[in-house]
Amino acid sequence: MLEASAVVALLGDLNAYSVENSDRLNQNAVDGGYMTEEVKEKINDSMDDFSGHADEQAKREWLMIDSGLAAMQFMLAAKARGYDTLPMIGYDVEAFRKEFDIPDNLVNVLMIAIGKAKKRGHASVRLEVDKVTYWNGKL
Known about the structure:
Shape: globular
Low-confidence stretches: none
Structural class: alpha+beta
Oligomer: single chain
Largest sheet: 3 strands, antiparallel
C-alpha cells in the first residue's frame, strides 16, 4: 500500500437510497433526453416504496453489495488499462476516518491500491464451481 501509485478509499453513502438522491440522478437523464419526467417520477415513487422504510442495517447491506460491484468494475477497468489493483480491508478504520474527517453518513467499504506491480503476483487457485454452488438442496 505504501508503494502504490494511488489508494482509493471506497465509501458508501447511507443517504444514497433516498428519493432526493434518485431525483437528482434521474433528472440528469431527463435533461439529457434519456428518460421522461413521468418515468423519473415512477422511479422516485418506487425508491420511496423500496427504501423509505428501510433501517440503517438494511441500507448498510445494500451499500456493501453495490460498493462491491463498483469496486469490481473499477478493478477490471484498471486492469484493462494495464494497472494492477489490490483490494484491502483490515486497515485502522477509526484512524482513517479521523485523518480524513469522514462524515457519519459515509460507510467504510474497502481500499483499493492501484499502480504497476514491481513483480508478478503469485499464482493462486480457486475452488471448483461445484464446491461453492448450491443446487436444490445439494452442496
